[in-house]
Write a structure and sequence with these properties.
This protein is globular. A 4-stranded mixed beta sheet has the order 1-2-3-4. The chain is α+β, with helices and mostly antiparallel strands.
Length: 160
Amino acid sequence: MAEPGVPPGVANGLEWTFVSDPTTLDGVSRDQLRRRFRAWAAEAERTEQPRAADHEKSWNGIRSQRYTYFVQVDEEALRSVVDADPSDRQDVGWVNLVRADEDQDFGRDAKEEDAEEADDEEGWMMISAHMLGPDFYDAIGQMPENWYAFYSPPPGLVVY
């Protein structure tokens, strides 16, 4: 996934983990996806980060972006990318970036609210598909408050 201005060693060293299983993913809620992602992240961090002393946080006490955020591509997001105009950099489609910190609530306690209101949680945002790469990964950083520098409530689209 080479990008202009990104050293090939960085671009080639970024490992993307894809999960595509319609039998277990179709129709599941974002909270269910978060639980699945957190289970994957806990195991992946143990095996990928040997300096993580307590196996819950990285060696510096802050969880890496790799284990904090995941990209969700549902049917609507996929259509936005497939139907995009390749000649227009502002029309490249979008994907959902989901924050999966276990320390965050994101409206999970809003069980009494109707489904439409419960989806207004601030634990996800729509980002331009061209943002998927090392630059944005670095920009969003490890600090939880960095999320809010980019956050725009859906259906607002974040373009960086």
